Description:
The chain has ten helices and eight strands. It has helices at residues 18-33, 39-42, 50-57, 62-80, 87-96, 109-118, 142-151, 167-176, 190-194, 208-211, and strands at residues 5-8, 15-16, 82-83, 100-104, 127-129, 160-164, 179-183, 200-202.
Amino acid sequence: xxxxxxxxxxxxxxxxxxxxxxxxxxxxxxxxxxxxxxxxxxxxxxxxxxxxxxxxxxxxxxxxxxxxxxxxxxxxxxxxxxxxxxxxxxxxxxxxxxxxxxxxxxxxxxxxxxxxxxxxxxxxxxxxxxxxxxxxxxxxxxxxxxxxxxxxxxxxxxxxxxxxxxxxxxxxxxxxxxxxxxxxxxxxxxxxxxxxxxxxxxxxxxxxxxxx
Length: 212
């Protein structure tokens, strides 16, 4: 079946924000809770909406922690974020093939767009669905459905591909009934992603073109 649209998570999939997210989480936790948490215990939060993360860490202080995280993250963003290999070339080829593309992320739109613009990626996408664009978030299918609505696609099922690095991306794809692709450069342990039964594994970004 011909691929009509490829949807991408942003952090950990297109751009490498792992160091940025870890540093921002640690700073926030240290500032408000006076605690230090090892990296491995924080990985489970990667891919979740920020408000959910802070509510899980400390419900009573969640609002203040969200604000601290966002301020620190914005300050450090441009110094710590990196681009994963082969991303621009692959997106250019998708564009040449006439395949629609969109970003589907759980972060706020301002920071999502900032990351795309830093690496001149925004021009490749027909839509950017961020936290404030939907009432429900990954793993709920609403973000994927919203992206298709914005693009104006009637295509469904296997004609749509969702590429991501977190179990929430894979669950979102499964719940929406579309093809799921898990990237092998994810910070999440492989067994965590395997538990969600992705349809394909992506060892490097350009290999995506072989699946479409």
